[in-house]
């Protein structure tokens, strides 16, 4: 497999798929540029070699050309970070993009307009009437697949090589994240540095495991985490299920949960998971106490109680001190740690304590030699909020992509390069 480190980009044009889907405020200022910074090593290597990056990305979920989602808003910021005046093509698949790519000189950089302005990027028909017949749906799908091929070919025609540095979209089989790789030979397609690091970190968690291996799964709903929990039951020694999911388990076990978040249709599933963990010898760790509130608000009246005895009209919004101790003991003895999801409503300052204490335990375990991977949206926000990101082994930039990889699924963006 080709690697970015070995590849000499001198005189070459590289189509670089990045994930510059950054948050913008109402004046189009970037409020968090982590994703842009994460791709800089790849872009800088290409420029330093004397190559020309042609940057492709999506921004938001436009349903067509929409000024709000134009990448022109972030052009200046990218130029500033790269130290190069980046050129812009107003239409990623128009004549301007082809002409500007062809005219690029070594060291020059071109940013293409939002790839998702075209439905062909995702390969999903747009604008179908709600009452469309099955035949209309079938035809629309067939049409978009045909025009997706032409779109992909066009993007590929701009460049001599393809670099995928967009781990955040690696779980999507889109034109620029996967299909485009088919237009380049084995020697001319590769992961960028960021993608390489992400893939390695996931592989380490899934295959190169030092034990004990502990997964901390938080968040609100069992239903959204069920596949990953099932897959982890075959791999981990300890499984901490926490956050809002706690109360579905507590209720299934006969506890009183007051108004706490609960999926009543998942009570049987919770019991099944408890039994499966037992059969597989996995130590399933659930909360024993809760920080409760008399309303879903940062300013609510609060108290602590056993997780089984939450009074009517109160709800658990974080773990309590006994649970913090219990989790910390397990985490600190671990040698491999995966953390996905907070222990409570960490967006409210008064319910951050549990998530912070988990983060601190993960950092301590890491200091003592554990490999720790933090990923999936909210836990990344947690480690950043608590200033703990530097104390863990790896913070993944991929939300959905990371979760799908850990579920054991093959990511199309990864497979397209690896074969
Ligand atoms: P998820 O998107 O499934 O990873 O869940 C993350 C969300 O779960 C965060 O926004 C948390 O506020 C929320 N959450 C965590 N614990 C609780 C809880 N006890 N009650 C309600 N929401 C929670």
What this model shows, in words?
This protein is an alpha/beta fold and 419 residues long. It has 2 domains: 13-191, Rossmann fold; 199-406, 3-Layer(aba) Sandwich (Rossmann fold), CATH 3.40.50. Helix content is 38%, strand content 16%. It contains 14 helices and 17 strands. The protein has helices at 34-49, 72-82, 95-103, 119-122, 134-157, 193-207, 222-233, 246-252, 267-279, 321-332, 353-367, 378-385, 400-406, 412-418, and strands spanning 13-17, 52-56, 87-89, 110-112, 161-164, 189-191, 213-217, 238-241, 256-257, 283-285, 289-293, 302-306, 309-310, 315-319, 336-340, 371-374, 394-395. The strands form 4 sheets. It has a 6-stranded parallel beta sheet with strand order 3-4-2-1-5-6, with helices on both faces. Strand 1 (13-17), helix 1 and strand 2 (52-56) form a beta-alpha-beta unit. It is globular, with a radius of gyration of 24 Å. It starts with 12 loop residues before the first strand and ends with a helix. The mean pLDDT is 96. The site of adenosine monophosphate has 15 residues, from strand 14.
Q: What fraction of residues sit in β-strands?
A: 15-25%
Q: Which structural class matches the secondary elements?
A: alpha/beta
| Count of distinct structural domains | 2
C-alpha Rg (nearest Å): 24 Å
| Strand arrangement, major sheet | 3-4-2-1-5-6
Percent in helix = 25-40%
- Shape descriptor reads globular
Most strands sheet: 6 strands, parallel
Helix count, DSSP H or I runs of 4 or more residues: 14
Assigned CATH superfamily of the largest domain = Phosphoglycerate kinase, N-terminal domain
- Could you name the CATH class of the largest domain? Alpha Beta
Residue-averaged pLDDT, rounded?
Answer: 96
**Number of DSSP E strands:** 17
Q: What small-molecule ligands were found? A: adenosine monophosphate
Identify the CATH architecture of the largest domain. 3-Layer(aba) Sandwich
Q: Termini distance?
A: 9 Å
**CATH topology type of the largest domain:** Rossmann fold
- Poorly predicted regions are none
